[in-house]
Every structure is written in C-alpha cells, then in structure tokens.
Amino acid sequence: MLMEPCVAGSLWSRSEPRATRHVESQFRSANPADQRWSWWPLLPLYPYGRRATHAEELIPGEVWSFEQLQGVYYVAVPIRLTVVKVPGGLMLVNPLPPTRELLKKLEALEAVHGPVRTIVMPTASGLEHKLPLAPLARAFPKADLWVCPGQWSFPVQLPLSWLGVPERRTRVLLDDGVPHPEICDWLSLGPLDLGVGRFQEISCCHRPSGALLVTDALVGISAEPPAVFDADPTPLLFHARERGDEPFLDSVEARRRGWARLVLFASYLRPEPLDVPSLLQVFRQAFRPGLRSPRTHYGLYPFAWQDGWHQAAAALMGDPNPRLQVAPVLERLVLPRARQALLRWLDELASLKAMRWLVPAHYSAPLAFTPEVVAAFKEELVQRPWAPDQGNWDFLAEIDKTLVRYRLVPRDPFTD
User: Which pTM does this prediction carry?
Assistant: First the structure.
C-alpha cells in the first residue's frame, strides 16, 4: 500500500506512531543560509542560489527521498536524491546540491542507520546530477563513488577529475563491477548515441525494499502538486494566472492549476494549447501595482492558455494515483528511434521478482511497480504510436527533425 504523503520537511508519514515523530524536528530548517547553493551560476536554474529541501520517508526503514526544485522561468519540477539502506550504512543515488539543510537531514539519517558508504551517479548525461557530485563527494570523504559509463561534457570533453570528482575513489558502474551486489541488481538502458555524447542510465533494484531506482527513463505524475512546493508555491501561483496583471492568489485550486501547466511545459516545452502574446500585450499588462518585484517577474507573463489545456494536462497526470509514463521530452528527443531498446529494458525489469516499487528522480514516488505492472505498461507502449509529431508533440518533433537534418544527432542511435 502506498504511504500517505508526508509533512513538508519531514521524513515521517502522518500515519507514523507519535512516539517516532520527535525525530521530525531534526529535519526542519527554515534558515536561508542553510539552503544556500554557491555553485548555481554553473547551471543557472531556478531557484538559483537558494535550494530548499523536502525530505520524506518513502519505504519505512529502507528508502528516503530528498527533493529540491529546478527549472526555467518558474517552470520548476521536483528533482530527487534517493537514499537507500545498505549493509553498514546508506547509499545515495542521483546527487543533489549538498546544502547545509540537506546535509543536516542526511546526518540525522546517519545517526540512526550508519554512515553514507556509497554515492552513485547512474546517468551519463544528467548535468543536474553531475554538477553536485563533486561537492557531495567532498561532504562524505569516506564514501565510494560510482558513475555511469560514458561520462561526457559539452562543448569541451573534460574528465570527471577536472570537474572536482576525486579520481582515486571513483569507479565505473558495470566496467568495475557494481556497488552492494548482495542486495542490489543493476540494469542498463542504453548506451544510445546522442551525437555530442551518449544516453545511458543504470537502474538499481534494491531488493530489501523492492524499490527500482531510476533517473529519467520513467516517471509518474500526479495531479496533486508535490509537497516540495509547500515551502514556496510561487511557481505554481505564477502559472495559475491568465494574464500578467493578475495578482498571485493562493488557493488549492490555483496550486493545482499552476501545477498542471508546469507539467505541460516540462513535458512538451511548448504544448499545443499555449499561445505567446505579442510583446506589446505583455508590456501593457506588466509593472502594475503589487507586481513590481523580481518574485512576480514585474508582471511579465508571456503566456496565453487556450481551450484544451485542461484535457492535455489531464492526459499526463493521474488522480489520485500518479500516471506512469515515459516523459514526452525523453520519448521525442532522446528515444524517438530507440523504442526497441526501451522495450528490451522493460523485459529485463519484468524478470525482477523482488520489484514492487518505482522511485524515479523526478515527480512522484513511490509508484506501485511489479513485474505485472511492467508487462501491462510495455503492452501499452507497443499498442500506441511512438514519438508522435502532431498536436502537443509538434514542437518537440520539429526540434528532433532539425537536429537530424543538420546531422547533430544520428539517425541510428545504437552504439553497441
């Protein structure tokens, strides 16, 4: 049974016995200095230099989630560092900026479950996880580091050691073995040739909890805004409006409307029901009283939502349970000619008899994910059109076609 959503900033669900909830105070921090992230100029995404962390226990005593926000122009979605219990301590999967707030919450876990023993970056192309790896490694100098094969950087290929990752304790997944094989199974999706580098993702099935940890390959999206927005719902309220001169009005309905539009943005970049008004119209509605601040972007709101956006968003989100899917931006820009590789990976997952949950690095977690669910999901992918090029998919399709036309990405993505 899925656990009830947890209180923001807490690792403990509302259904936990009161006797255990005294630990909750160790995970709360409202000090802005504890949320500072000094490396943000290297990847200047919202919320820039201040990263609040929402912590939550996903599977009792085995798996925990540490979430922050990242995005562009308030198009912010959750990104997750997953912590799992391993023999003698903890393993961190998919690094996040190690703010003092995040480290304090990890210290509280270490006090109960033992030290951080392993840090894993299971993707070759995830810059949002690659950039925090070096500072996270320095925060835990005794932890072993494991990275996905085929690490690359653009526009200049640099070794990880030049990015600050300690070479002497860094090993490559699969090439040098795998961490904690006594309790973890590791499976690779890819490698696929992206032109400038490769797409590859190593998923981990943590047998004691039954949790499959993935980065980008699969997501589950709920109609309910994630709890990480509770600390600051500004992105939700910004996009809940129809015009730039409307005030930020906070309500459950406004948060859900703003979240639905964020999901559309993040999924399709420019969904079909979105129109871009003229600059004259945008400036006419800007700089109104109450909107003259950086938080409101001075009333600059270059979006106009047309009829049909509700239906487009509803097709992506589950209510109340998250909707399992391949993220459209991944399907159309990374895997458009690689459906068979994804299907083979799903076949491998279906053989994992211990698997019961899915914990992606984005959106909702955990999702029910048994071999039976995998088989049904694979059949759904086989039956429906793959990587469409019409409707909401049109903008993504044009990007892909342009990249192929100019030979920036290969027509055949397979490198093995």
Answer: 0.90
